[in-house]
Every structure is written in C-alpha cells, then in structure tokens.
Write a structure and sequence with these properties.
heterodimer; A: alpha/beta; Alpha-Beta Plaits; 2 domains; 4-stranded antiparallel beta sheet; 14 strands; elongated; B: mainly alpha; globular
Chain lengths: 330, 237
C-alpha cells in the first residue's frame, strides 16, 4: 500500500530524514516511534504529499507522491499534529465541507458523515462550534476528518497527544477498529501505545530508521533474550550460586531487601528456566512468593537502539539541531 | 466544484465574524458622512465622482484588514497544512480566497448604491459615469486585494501582513501623488506604475482599455506570485 524507497529530506542545512526505506501492507497499523524531532512528522508530511522528498521515491496506493500528488491526496486521510481546525465552524459544517473538498459524492455525504460521527463518538458535539470544543473532541474531529472520504490510507500524527487516559484508550480503540478497512500510519513518542495499537513499529532516531519490525520481534529479537524475576521470603544464603547452577549458567543476580530477596535470571533465546528455579527453591526450602517472566518493553529496546546509535556517532553539539521543522519558513 | 466549496467557506468566514461587520460599519459611516458633506458643499447631482474618490482612498485602509488573515492565519494555525494536503490545487486555493475577498468588498460597497438612488430622486446624476466609477473601484480593489493576499502568503503573522500591505499601497499611492516631482523622463513611468492615475478616467466615466489591462494584469501578477509562494514549501520545506 505504501512504499518508501530511500527517501531523504533536507531543509536548509538540516537533514530531517535520511535514507529511509520501508513498506506498509494493506490493513497494517505501522507506528512511528521516536523522540521529539526524530523526523516522524517530516516523513508523514512527505507521505501525505505536503512536500516532496529531497531525494528518493515514495508511492502510496501505487501513485507517486511527487508526480501524482493529487491522486495520492485523494487516497490519504491525513491528520497533522495538534489538529488544526477552523474555530469558527460547527463540527457538522466542517465535516461536510471537508467531505465536499475531498470529492465525496453528494448522495454519499450524509451516510459518510453519520458513519464518522458514530465511529468517533461525536453525536453530542456535532452542532457545536469547533473553537469551544475540548482537546479530546478536537482530536476526534481530526480523526473524523481523516476518515470522512473513506480513504484507503490514514496518516495520523500524534493522535493521542494531549488527551486524558480515558480518551487515549478510546482513541486507541477507534484506531484499532479502523485498521480493518484502512492502512494506518501513526506516530507517537509514547512507547506502550505502539505495543498496544500497532501491528508493526518503525523506530526513528535522528532522521534514520533504526528498525522496522513487528512489536513482538522488536521486543524479543533485538534485546537478545528474556529474564525471569522472582522474590523469596527472608534472606537465605547462596541464592545466586544455587540459582545459577539450577538455570544452567547465565547471569543471575539476587539482592536482599527488607524481609525478602529479589532475584533475576537472564536466559538465552527461547529458554524457559522457571521450572528449574521453582525446583531449586523447593529443594533448598526457600519460600517462593513470586516468579514471572519479565518481557523487555519496547521502551528498553528503544533506549538500547538509540543509545547504540549515539555511542557510534560523535555527539551532535546541538540536541535540537537535527530536529524536524514544525512549519516551513516562508 | 472544489473552487465553489473553498469559495463558500472563505466567504462564510467573513460573514460569520464580527470583525467583518465592524469593517462594514466603519466604511459606511465614513462614506455616508462624506457623501452628506460633499452634497451640501457642491449642491450637485454629480457628487458621486467625489464620493468614489474617497471610497477609493478608504479602501486602501480597509483592504489590508480584509486580506491580512487570509493565508497568514491559516499558516500560523496549521489549517493551511490541512488545506494543501486535501485534493485541491494551489491555484484553486488562491482563486477562492481572492474571489471571496472581492465578493466581500463588493458587499461592503453595495449599500452605497442607496446614495445614487437618493441622487436620482432629486436630480439627474450621470448614471454612466457612476457605473464606470464603480467598475473602476472594483478593479482597483482587485489590485489592492491581490497584493494583500500576496503579502499574507509571505508572512505567518497577520498583523505584520496587514501593516506591510498598507505600507505598500500607501507608497504606490504617494508615488502617484508626487509623480510631477520626478525627472521628466520618469514621469510617464511613475504615472503608469501608480494606481490612481488609472482610476481617474473611470471616475470621469471613461473606461479605457489601457487602464483595464493595467488593473487586470497587476491583479493577475500578484495572484500568480501568491500561488508561487504557496508552492515554495515544496522546495524550501
């Protein structure tokens, strides 16, 4: 559905995106993950034909974003960061206006309008003036706008920024629901969000795409294994060495806390030493009160990837120097 | 189709904002007062000649207020991004904004038709000259509006856009006033560049194709420049 082939975007002296390549298949939700200024917005703006890449090619639904920009724009529902809307218009007026602008046929406008109002839970505010809406409702109007023409591709820049936890959950549910019929790209710097909503994630750091993979593979493959953690009542001696013997080597650490002992066992690849750990505890007469797998979070993976990159490069003197530009100077 | 959709939104934006009505009130109050004053002074049915001249100067002050927000505000609030990523061309965007602002200007001026009606009841004004004068007013307003839209496209601060537009209009106006101060060879050039020497014949009832060409080509040039400025984002980012 979306093919990005070695795109680079430079602004006067600043490289916002460098040599990015990835593809998104129909029905996928791809999450762009990266710190502020990593190049997420720039990439999304290229995909939605706001500006062309400096070099490289990029097609959406088979149309080139530079040469067939109008065709691309007909097929993409784009929601920019911070959801700019006309404050003086009513929600219904605005959505009908956008539907006309996006070429929705006259007889389809009402059903499309009613559909997005229902999907985005806008019934209560559809006759209100946009300028008076809360942030959460504005965000939903933005998503409704992106969906109004039923485009095959949705590009949502930070769809959950500035929302309260309930609204975030609702918005995530909404996006997940949309994925059946649409291909979605969304950006975020909230890592759990990608794990919860996306089928795949692209980690972007300083304009480069560091990794593109399913969220499970990212959390498993890149971190190189899992970890078993647990707690023992009291402070028995020799926990580390006994556990190491039981688990068959690997890094084991144990720390006595206030009345209990915390331990962790690193395990290689697919190994599962939980049963061994239990037997070891039982054999030694320890009281095991917790034993669980600790999956690496995307957060750790992300930190690992970005730190590795920083170690390899000479540090950039200005942290915001490679940042994405919020608005082209003109 | 797109053009009509965009045009309707732009025009509605004028008509729903209190600012649009404040401008209209100020304009009508000022021209009405002047119409009364000129009528008492001249006791002539051809007073519209004078009134149109004043409306013209007054529109130089109004137009920056009409156009300043058109693109600058959309750029600042980010709605321009929504607009240009919708399947519409930059030409359609600029044309709709120009069309809506010109329509608003015409709506602003339309009530002054009452003055003409008043004159017609009490004496025989030269209706042909009045019609030509209004045509000239609309044409010169097109020039002002297109320059205002161009400046608005260049800035993201609408107040700056308004002030710069006013300064440009004022400079070209003063150029026309001081044409005779220039060296002899430059006088025709200055008189050609300035707006008002082209407006004078209209007020007298003279529709000259050279003046028509001047107004239409300056408008076209400024709007073309606006489209180019919008396209700049593609190359400068």
């Amino acid at each position: 559905m979306i093919d990005v082939d070695h795109i680079t975007k430079r602004f006067a002296g600043v490289t916002a995106v460098e040599d990015a390549s990835f593809a998104v298949a129909k029905g996928e939700i791809l999450g762009f993950l990266g710190p502020n200024g990593a190049g997420k917005t720039t990439t999304m703006r290229i995909l939605s034909a706001y500006f062309p890449p400096t070099s490289g090619r990029c097609t959406v639904a088979g149309f080139d974003v530079v040469r067939d920009s109008l065709e691309v724009r007909r097929r993409v529902g784009y929601m920019p960061e911070n959801v700019p809307l006309y404050p003086e218009m009513r929600v219904s007026e605005y959505l009908y206006y956008r539907a006309r602008l996006k070429g929705v046929a006259r007889r389809d406008r009402r059903p499309r309008f009613e559909r997005v109002v229902e999907q985005c839970a806008l019934q209560e505010v559809k006759d209100r003036v946009i300028g008076q809406l809360s942030k959460g409702y504005r965000q939903r109007v933005g998503i409704a706008d992106a969906c109004i023409a039923d485009p095959p591709v949705l590009i949502l820049d930070e769809p959950t920024i500035g929302l309260d936890p309930n609204q975030i959950r609702e918005t995530r549910g909404l996006i997940k629901g949309l994925a059946h019929a649409h291909t979605v790209i969304l950006s975020t710097h909230i890592l759990p969000e990608v794990e919860m909503t996306c089928t795949r994630a692209a980690v972007i750091h300083r304009g480069r795409i560091m990794a593109v993979d399913t969220t499970e593979r990212l959390t498993r493959g890149l971190s190189g294994g899992r970890r078993v953690v647990g707690e023992l009542v009291g402070a028995p001696t020799g926990v580390e060495s006994k556990l190491r013997a039981a688990a068959g080597g690997g890094t084991v650490s144990a720390r006595a806390r206030d009345g209990f002992t915390e331990f962790s066992v690193e395990c290689a690849g697919e190994a599962d030493p939980r049963a061994e750990v239990f037997r070891c505890a039982a054999a030694n007469g320890w009281t095991l009160r917790e034993l669980r797998f600790e999956r690496r979070t995307l957060e750790e993976v992300f930190a690992q990837i970005t730190r590795r990159e920083e170690g390899a490069l000479t540090p950039d003197p200005s942290p915001g120097g490679r940042g994405e530009r919020k608005e082209p100077a003109a | 189709m797109n053009l009509l959709t965009l045009y309707r939104r732009e025009l509605a934006a004028y008509l729903v904002s209190p600012f649009g009505y404040i401008i209209a009130c100020a304009f009508l109050l000022f021209t009405g007062r002047f119409f009364h004053f000129a009528l008492v002074q001249t006791q002539s049915a051809d007073v519209m000649n004078e009134v149109l001249g004043v409306m013209d100067v007054f529109s130089m002050i109004l137009v920056p207020m009409i156009t300043m927000r058109l693109i600058a505000e959309e750029r600042k609030s980010g709605t321009l991004e929504m607009l240009v990523t919708a399947p519409v061309t930059d030409v359609e965007i600029v044309a709709s904004k120009f069309g809506a602002s010109l329509t608003y200007f015409i709506l602003l001026v339309a009530p002054t038709g009452l003055y003409v009606e008043l004159l017609r009841r009490h004496g025989p004004p030269d209706l042909g000259a009045v019609a030509a004068g209004y045509l000239g007013l609309v044409l010169i307003a097109s020039v002002f509006l297109s320059i205002g839209i161009f400046v608005s496209a260049c800035s993201r601060n609408q107040v700056v856009a308004g002030i710069v537009t006013f300064v440009i209009l004022l400079l070209v106006w003063m150029l026309g006033l001081s044409a005779s101060q220039f060296p002899e060879w430059a006088v025709p050039v200055v008189r050609y560049v300035a707006f008002f020497p082209h407006f004078e014949p209209f007020r007298k009832g003279l529709v000259d194709s050279r003046d028509l060409v001047y107004f239409l080509s300056v408008t076209g040039l400024a709007l073309f420049g606006t489209v180019r400025v919008l396209e700049l984002r593609r190359w400068r980012g």
